[in-house]
Write a structure and sequence with these properties.
The complex is a heterodimer of chains A (about 270) and B (about 350). With about 270 residues, chain A is α/β, with parallel strands linked by helices. Chain A has eleven helices and ten strands. The longest helix of chain A has 20 residues. In chain B, α2 crosses α12 and α4 runs antiparallel to α10. Chain B is mainly alpha-helical. Chain B has two domains: about 300 residues, Orthogonal Bundle (ABC transporter involved in vitamin B12 uptake, BtuC); about 40 residues. The chains are: A alpha/beta (about 270), B mainly alpha (about 350). Chains A and B meet through α3, α4, α5 and α6 of A and α7, α8, α9, α10 and α15 of B. The structure holds adenosine-5'-triphosphate and magnesium ion (MG). The site of adenosine-5'-triphosphate (ATP) has 12 residues of chain A, from β2 and α2.
């Protein structure tokens, strides 16, 4: 069902302007002391679309992710997901709602194995509590099997079999980024937030990642909000690109439009020094 | 490799079970009593290890929950006439609630601050228990004397043997439950909260609920241990629950191995016997040195931690790994097969991914 939707979405470039947006950010503002990290930020992401989010260092990209995943409470503005305001949900409810993310600096559970990390990603597909698990009820056992199946499939898909039983903390940055990606997909999200997934990768690996992100979207129909400094990667995979500078949206449109936008060019040249 | 490890751990578990079961039928009365003490400590440490080892919440106050279990059971038995098999679960339920409620303020504290908050609990418990205003219920500084439960008629067991077996059965059941918790989704969530609380929440783990529930479960284990201790000793008094008891539990889980459930048995043996050994050793140095047992205990503790920095469980794991490697190196053909399978698995994984 979801897959069919995704295929249909992919056929007409992924962006259906008539359908209600999956993610609608409007008037988002947040300050830290004197710094206005986000100012009146508004944009929408359609179901199954890949939306690149670009901007120089300190533009507010990670801050926006943190607002969407409820780590920060914005001072003003709203975020609607699937038509529902995120402000009415607690952090831990977002996974069930369909939002998953990775972290810029990688936030794996370092003492756990790769497989266990991916299993935690699937935490929200089960319901059993302390008592059911302590007594190993049939429900808890069934859920455990389901989680293990899900984790094994992702480990296979992301080529992590060789490291599945290694502690996550012992792996290279690039591999950990990959584990985080697998972990984020374990619950089957509708929206995937990727914060610099190409970190720690070399040139050819970055090219591979572009295909992989497309493939993830095409197979699952998941919308992706992608923060990256590798401009070629962003422009290649995105259906839509939003550019931030000093917390404000300076451009929002098709990749080629945004790439040619004068303010975007100026922001990047200005921050080059 | 993993299969061999599992087989080995099953073997060790079976051996421990056999020894533990045979023990009360070969040992003398006082030793059986000591064995029951070890099991009681081990139960309390199972709970503390879930909290501290798995979930990363330090408690210096588990002696207080132990005290609630102990007094709760004693009061229910003497004042309300409940049999011990009903009094202990009831007192443990009270401990769960107390621990769960204490878990809420604990949410605001991290690391050392939580250690201090629980420290306060440990300091307050004996004072509250000996407070004269509660004399009518707690017996004040006199404490409460209980009749030791007897074995059911028909079973030809001494009271000590029966108590030991009750402790063993409780310990086995609670170990089984803790293992189920630790090995599944809940255990992973608890460790996730310890390692990366924000990422854990992003994965859908309700960290606040899990932390408070873990505190409750941990207190429940301490409560069962306290209740069993009440009937095993036959007497409860405020002095038994000083800070040193709370510290002993913490020492025990570190010696046994943090986040190792089997390790608590070693931790319990350590805190039951090493202080006595220190006492006996100090006798060799003459009567004059009063502080010597403490110093010897400290030195033994440092020695153990220096030899096994990750506790007895970690040391045992390292030792088995070394033995396995040695066995493997003397049978090179098997190693080659193993390596081949690994490589094949890796390529299989690559092949499937588009
Ligand atoms: N928790 C915080 N406390 C104070 N200031 C913050 C906090 N989080 C973000 N900021 C500030 O907000 C601004 C935006 O930071 P943010 O991390 O969102 O940038 P970014 O676009 O992700 O940059 P980069 O590309 O370097 O990752 C910066 O000036 C940063 O210092
Ligand atoms: Mg950032």
């Amino acid at each position: 069902m979801e897959l069919a939707e995704a295929k249909a979405g992919g056929a007409d470039e992924g962006v259906d302007l008539l359908a209600p947006a999956l993610l609608a950010v409007s008037g988002l503002t947040i300050r830290f002391g004197g710094v206005t990290a986000l100012q009146d930020v508004s944009f929408e992401v359609a179901r199954g679309a890949i939306c690149g989010l670009i901007g120089p260092n300190g533009a507010g990209k990670t801050t926006l992710f943190n607002c969407i995943s409820r780590l920060y409470d914005p001072g003003a503005g709203s975020i609607l997901f699937d038509g529902r305001p995120l402000a009415s949900f607690a952090r831990h409810e977002l996974a069930s709602l369909g939002i998953a993310r990775t972290f810029q600096n990688v936030a794996l559970f370092s003492t756990m194995t790769v497989r266990e990390n991916v299993c935690v990603g699937a935490h929200a597909i089960a319901r059993g509590g302390f008592l059911a698990n302590a007594l190993a009820t049939p429900l808890a056992r069934r859920e455990e099997l389901r989680i293990a199946e899900r984790a094994d499939a992702l480990i296979e898909e992301f080529g992590l079999k060789g490291v599945a039983d290694r502690p996550a903390g012992a792996l290279s940055f690039g591999v950990r980024k990959r584990v985080e990606l697998a972990r984020a997909l374990a619950k089957g999200p509708k929206l995937l937030l990727l914060d610099e997934p190409a970190g720690g990768l070399n040139h050819s690996e970055v090219d591979g990642l572009a295909d992989e992100i497309r493939a993830i979207r095409d197979r699952r129909g998941v919308a992706v909000l992608l923060v990256e400094h590798h401009m070629n990667l962003v422009m290649r995979v995105s259906d839509q690109v939003v550019a931030l500078d000093f917390g404000r949206v300076i451009a929002n449109g098709r990749p080629d439009e945004v790439r040619a936008n004068r303010e975007v060019v100026r922001a990047y040249l200005g921050s080059a020094g | 490799m993993a299969d061999a490890e599992n087989a080995l751990s099953l073997l060790v578990t079976l051996a421990v079970a056999v020894i533990a079961l045979a023990f009360p039928f070969v040992a003398s009365g006082y030793h059986i009593y000591q064995g029951a003490q070890v099991l009681i400590f081990a139960i309390a440490m199972l709970g503390l290890n879930l909290l501290t080892g798995f979930n990363g919440q330090i408690s210096l106050g588990h002696g207080a929950f132990f005290a609630i279990g102990c007094y709760g059971a004693a009061i229910l038995m003497t004042k309300f006439g409940l049999p011990y098999w009903a009094a202990i679960p009831a007192a443990s339920a009270v401990c769960f609630v107390a621990g769960f409620l204490f878990g809420f303020p604990a949410l605001r504290f991290g690391g050392l601050y939580l250690a201090l908050a629980t420290f306060a609990l440990a300091v307050a418990a004996p004072q509250i228990l000996s407070y004269t205003g509660f004399d009518a219920i707690t017996g004040g500084s006199q404490g409460i004397t209980l009749a030791k439960p007897q074995a059911p008629i028909g079973l030809k067991l001494t009271s000590d043997q029966w108590l030991y077996l009750v402790c063993l059965a409780s310990g086995a059941a609670l170990y089984w439950a803790a293992r189920n918790l630790a090995r599944g989704r809940i255990g992973r969530a608890l460790i996730a909260i310890r390692d990366q609380p924000i990422a854990a929440e992003t994965m859908g783990v309700n960290a606040a609920l899990y932390k408070t529930t873990c505190f409750g479960v941990s207190a429940l284990y301490a409560g069962v241990a306290g209740g069993l201790s009440a009937i095993a000793v036959g007497f409860v008094s405020p002095e038994s629950f000083g800070l040193s008891l709370s510290l002993a539990f913490l020492v025990g889980i570190v010696v046994g191995g943090l986040a190792s459930l089997g390790g608590v048995l070693f931790g319990a043996l350590f805190i039951e016997f090493v202080p006595n050994i220190a006492d006996q050793l100090s006798v060799n140095f003459g009567e004059s040195a009063k502080a010597l047992p403490g110093a010897i205990y400290g030195a033994l503790l440092i020695l153990v931690m220096a030899a096994m920095p990750t506790g007895v469980a970690g040391g045992a794991r390292a030792a088995t790994n070394a033995v396995m490697r040695w066995l493997a190196s003397s049978r090179p053909i098997e190693v080659a097969n193993d390596g081949g399978a690994d490589v094949a698995a890796k390529y299989e994984g690559k092949g499937e991914s588009p």
